[in-house]
Amino acid sequence: MPKALWRGAISFGLVYVPVEVxxxxxxxxxxxxxxxxxxxxxxxxxxxxxxTGREVDWSHVVKGFEYKKGDYVVLTDxxxxxxxxKASETIEVKTFCDAEDIPFLxxxxxxxxxxxxxxxxxYSLLRQALSxxxxxxxxxxxxxxxxxLCAISPSESSLVLLTLRFPDEIVPSEKQNPAARVTAAELSxxxxxxxxxxxxxxxxxxxxxxRSDLKRRIQEKIRKKETHALDVKPPERPKAEVIDLMAALxxxxxxxxxxxxxSRHGNSARKRA
Length: 273
Prior knowledge:
Layout: E1 6-12, E2 15-23, E3 63-68, E4 71-75, H1 77-83, H2 85-89, E5 90-97, E6 107-115, H3 120-133, E7 136-143, E8 146-155, E9 158-164, H4 184-196, H5 209-223, H6 245-259, H7 264-272
Parallel strand pairs: 1-5
Antiparallel strand pairs: 1-2, 2-6, 3-4, 5-7, 6-9, 7-8, 8-9
């Protein structure tokens, strides 16, 4: 089992659930490097001492807060923990709510919660209670030397922790776009297109095609010996004003109608009828 990112307990009421936090996502981006366009030499990140100009080894790097110009207070791991011991060791549940109560803008990153030694029964109890009530827990805890708001949700036989943004981390929507007038015919056509494209979310239906497309483009440039060429400027996209909205909606509906294949659910429904 991979190393735990955090160890502690979920706390709600007088109940404690010993848990470990494990990563639940991975970065699939291509490992691109920064290059100097003059000779294509790699450009790397360096930890440089701003006074001496020399590179600093990780073993000598510490964290500090500049309380006035040029003066710092050094903070150790113990300082971060002592600032609030309970928050550093406990995922403290503040409330239980419906998942729909949390806007999408607040969600950040998923993690798996794994029961720690001796916590299997109470872990299972919390998971089953959340499933039965169709609620998620909203809590806070400290990980990686910063406080996180989070949601705890049941998922099959596990509990999943999703970090959330705090309200002051959400950039308010500036209503810069005036409400454009939409005709009844356009709205009716758009609603038909939405209904025609409606279906259940099946995660396996979605693939990261851009990554494979980019790899093909890289191989193409290698075959053409364009290994030191800079990319040309991409063609400009047409402006939204030139698009005939009704024509685009009609064409979209036509394409969906011609290419749509009946689903298994649709077939079985027709057979029953």
